[in-house]
């Protein structure tokens, strides 16, 4: 537990390094201009995030030992042909293992995964978040960082998909498709992100959109038994990871964010970054009633949920009353702390006790 507290304190205390940013209501895909002070903050925090995930013991994280066994299999048996025929992993991830096996240690695979995830997501945070330190803190608190410990393939795919967010903002489908295709090489569920390009054509947050989102959410919640029947046909139902790593605290965050962002829509509507983030988070909210039924629904929700890292800071920054804005920041951090230490890093996910690889 201590190592995670140190991570939170470092991310919070060093916030003074982040140069204050005036909210840009017309923020484009090019994002905020980078500055040396904020870059130093991201480098220090990024190094700590990478260090903790890369140097963890194999007992930390449910799936870590699974990936270690697979790495050892490639180390002893696999050849280049197995990149496409091993039947366990997608070809991109398999290729990385084949390349890294010459280094002889599973550590290098852990380092690769977390480095790609942290670097690409922190780069996106630097471009699209008006409160960088808050986004970095929420990256840990909101169960996004934990993917580096368990869903290692998806951690890479999610980071690549985040890189492609700028193509949603720019309405460049072919470059977006290329990016998602690369992500697909690391986890096949990345293909679920292709239909989300549809949100690129939403130019404003409108009332009738919110009404439609509400009706769709209620309909899915009411008729969730229909999805249960479908899942029973294809197997693997009762997927409970969502409850274990977020549950109703996660739902409350989604709902709160969508409602506040809708209230602030006149300001957020001036930026395609915020509009796209709003609809992606709303889509995540719609999926919540059924995401516990099967890994596919959960992973699709996760791909959209991650855009909270942009929407929450920009939404809060758009609130002109500083007292209300600061109360909002405290609430988001408070709910995140509750979620992290009551569920995300404590609920049967083998994050505690944390041990280094040499212990």
Keywords:
single chain, 359 residues, mainly alpha, 64% helix
Describe the structure.
The chain is mainly α. The protein has 19 helices and no strands. It has helices spanning 2-13, 36-54, 64-76, 82-85, 91-100, 107-128, 132-141, 152-163, 165-169, 173-184, 207-222, 224-234, 241-244, 247-263, 265-268, 272-287, 295-305, 308-317, 322-344. Helix 2 packs antiparallel against helix 6. The two termini are 16 Å apart. 46% of the residues are buried. The model is unreliable at 227-245 (pLDDT under 50).
Shape summary = globular
Q: How many strands in all? A: 0
What is the count of DSSP helices, taking H or I runs of 4+ residues? 19
Overall mean pLDDT stands at 79
Series of H and E elements: HHHHHHHHHHHHHHHHHHH
Which blocks of ≥5 consecutive residues have pLDDT under 50?
227-245
Task: Give a quick summary of the entry.
The chain is 64% helix and 0% strand. It is mainly α and 359 residues long.
Topology:
Blueprint: H1 2-13, H2 36-54, H3 64-76, H4 82-85, H5 91-100, H6 107-128, H7 132-141, H8 152-163, H9 165-169, H10 173-184, H11 207-222, H12 224-234, H13 241-244, H14 247-263, H15 265-268, H16 272-287, H17 295-305, H18 308-317, H19 322-344
């Amino acid at each position: 537990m201590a190592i995670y507290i140190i991570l939170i304190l470092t991310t919070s205390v060093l916030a003074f390094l982040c140069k204050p940013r005036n909210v840009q209501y017309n923020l484009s895909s090019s994002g905020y201009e980078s500055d040396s002070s904020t870059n130093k903050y991201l480098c220090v925090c990024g190094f700590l995030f990478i260090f903790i995930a890369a140097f963890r013991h194999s007992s930390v994280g449910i799936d870590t030992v699974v990936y270690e066994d697979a790495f050892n299999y490639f180390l002893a048996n696999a050849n280049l042909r197995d990149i496409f025929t091993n039947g366990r992993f997608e070809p991109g991830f398999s290729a990385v293992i084949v390349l890294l096996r010459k280094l002889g240690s599973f550590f290098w695979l852990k380092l690769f995964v977390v480095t790609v995830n942290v670097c690409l997501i922190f780069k996106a945070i630097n471009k699209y978040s008006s409160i960088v330190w808050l986004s970095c803190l929420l990256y840990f608190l909101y169960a996004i960082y934990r993917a580096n410990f368990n869903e290692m393939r998806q951690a890479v795919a999610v980071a690549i998909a985040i890189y492609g967010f700028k193509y949603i903002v720019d309405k460049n489908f072919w470059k977006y498709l290329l990016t998602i295709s690369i992500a697909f090489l690391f986890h096949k569920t990345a293909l679920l992100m292709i239909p989300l390009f549809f949100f690129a054509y939403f130019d404003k947050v409108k009332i009738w959109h919110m009404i439609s989102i509400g009706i769709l959410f209620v309909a899915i919640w009411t008729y969730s038994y229909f999805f249960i029947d479908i899942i029973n046909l294809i197997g693997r139902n009762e997927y409970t990871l969502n409850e274990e790593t977020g549950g109703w605290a996660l739902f409350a965050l989604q709902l709160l964010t969508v409602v506040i962002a809708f209230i602030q829509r006149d300001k957020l509507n001036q930026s395609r970054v915020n509009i796209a983030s709003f609809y992606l988070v709303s889509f995540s909210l719609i999926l919540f009633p059924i995401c516990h039924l099967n890994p596919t629904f959960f992973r699709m929700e996760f791909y959209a949920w991650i855009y909270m890292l942009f929407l929450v800071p920009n939404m809060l920054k758009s609130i002109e009353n500083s007292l209300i804005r600061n109360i909002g920041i405290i609430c988001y951090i408070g709910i995140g702390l509750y979620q992290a230490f009551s569920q995300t890093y404590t609920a049967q996910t083998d994050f505690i006790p944390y041990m280094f690889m040499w212990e």
